[in-house]
Design brief:
By secondary structure, this protein is mainly α. The chain has two domains: 4-46, no CATH class; 54-129, Uncharacterised protein PF10982, DUF2789 (Arc Repressor Mutant, subunit A), CATH 1.10.10. Helices cover 45% and strands 11% of the residues. The protein is built from seven helices and three strands; from the N terminus they run E-H-E-E-H-H-H-H-H-H. It has helices at 16-19, 43-46, 54-60, 67-76, 93-105, 108-120, 122-129; strands spanning 4-7, 24-29, 36-39. Helix 5 packs across helix 6. The longest helix is centred in the C-terminal third of the chain and has 13 residues, at 93-105.
């Protein structure tokens, strides 16, 4: 592992495009004295400001994410009430793992995964409550 020496931009001569960016530091490593621009993480970059929606969840799961495809997926993949979302046979192992982790994390993804769960169990819940 090499140590990086970080200097402020004001102390390091740079070409104009780099000098204009306030969110950049210049670093040189022990292996090379060549300067490298490293973007600083801003607060916005540290916080994932993407809006988490069903379309994003479908994309994350590697599924078609247009409105019609999502509606078709819900219609074609209704689950019995006793089948937990992540245990459903419609998922591959990577998708199951993502769904389990999203539910455990109790973050923005978990809200959308809960909505996915409700949508996939909708027919079973309606059948039970109609009795």
């Amino acid at each position: 592992m090499t140590a990086a020496r970080i200097t402020s931009q004001a102390d390091f001569p740079t070409d104009p495009p780099l000098a204009e960016s306030r969110n950049t530091v210049i670093a040189s490593t022990a292996i090379s004295s060549e300067a490298v621009a490293i973007p600083l993480m801003t607060l916005d970059a540290l916080m994932d400001t993407r809006e988490i929606r069903m379309t994003n969840l479908f994309l994350q799961l590697g599924l078609p994410a247009d409105e019609d495809a999502i509606a078709r997926f819900f219609l074609d993949n209704q689950l019995p009430e006793e089948v937990p979302l992540a245990a459903a046979p419609i998922w591959n192992e990577g998708q199951r793992q993502f769904l389990r982790e999203a539910l455990k994390a109790d973050d923005e993804w978990s809200l959308v995964v809960d909505a996915l769960n409700e949508s996939l169990h909708e027919d079973a819940v309606k059948a039970r409550t109609a009795r």
